[in-house]
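TODO from last week: model Leucine-, isoleucine-, valine-, threonine-, and alanine-binding protein.
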Amino acid sequence: MKKWLISSAVSALALTSAATADIKIAHVYGKTGPFEAYAKQSHDGLMLGLEYATGGTMEINGDKLIVIEKDTQLKPDNGKALLEEAYGDDEVDVAVGPVSSGVALAMLPVAEEYEKLLIVEPAVADSITGANWNRYIFRTGRNSSQDAVANAIALAGEDAQIATLAQDYAFGRDGIAAFREALEGQGQSIVHEEYVPTDTTDFTAAAERIFTAMKDLEGNKKLFIIWAGGGNPMGKIQAMDPSRFGVEIATGGNILAAMKAYKEFPELEGATYYYHEIPENDVNDWLVKTHQDRFGTPPDFFTAGGMSAGIAVVEAIKKAGSTDTEELIEAMEGMEWETPKGTMKFRAEDHQAMQPMYHFKIRVDDSVEWGIPELVRELSIEDLPIPIRN
């Protein structure tokens, strides 16, 4: 192994150090654009994960780390070109990212072409480790099926009547498809589905179609929303008074900024990937304390994911004893490692990280800016029958 240097960008220092660095990590992600908040969390978490896993030295066996950032601006063509640049010109050994599922799908073939690893974090679409997967792809982030199965467990019931609203792209479509399948596994179905453009801000027409489909149904009626970014569909649909049709809003977890809107929904139920007060383990304790000390805030949804990816990179290299791609793949298939969520494990068949999820109910505290997802039940790896889709 060779000397590593940590860099927050492709800087002169990183370039001059390239000759002595055998291992480089590219973080290819949407640093600017609508998911900028997600991206910052992911990068902060990645750096914290590398720090934690190396005991603060940013070295493995005396060799230092280089991290090169590349901004996709949430454009698939950019993601593809930047990953080609990272593998080809920068000669990185492994890449991490991106934020957007659409960008990720454009990047997957590049990893296969260059025969280099891409650790997907936090893009969610099932097809990333499903129909579009190749053996050079590992994902530390949860997939749509993990979200869907966890939320189905949280929301299903004998008298449940569930409609859905999602964005009309890979994240939303894959998410609802997986949610539908998970409900069917419990003997239930979705009564109505709506898909709208990713930048929708007026939900009137979609909501009215949902209300029309649900108004005459009997039972516990819920509108389950899958959404990423702005638009505030929960708040805007709630302002239309769905309770006049007996409909309640339901959704999964989100970043803290988005969960400010959850204060309007006390007792709202769903399942989440992470909330800083839920997991009880040494890694999460370190993350919460370190993040609070450095940034003045608790770690967020994608901070935990980025940290999990950073730890996975270090643990894989340690286990492989090499940065050779084939040796890394062999080391990572079935690899277990400790994260802020507890133990994760890469499934050998599709390289998807198996991980716990959390059934929550929102509690409102006037002293806290966001709705607090209070734990109802931890859903372990064994509780979540996640299908293999490739």
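Done. The longest strand covers residues 160-167.
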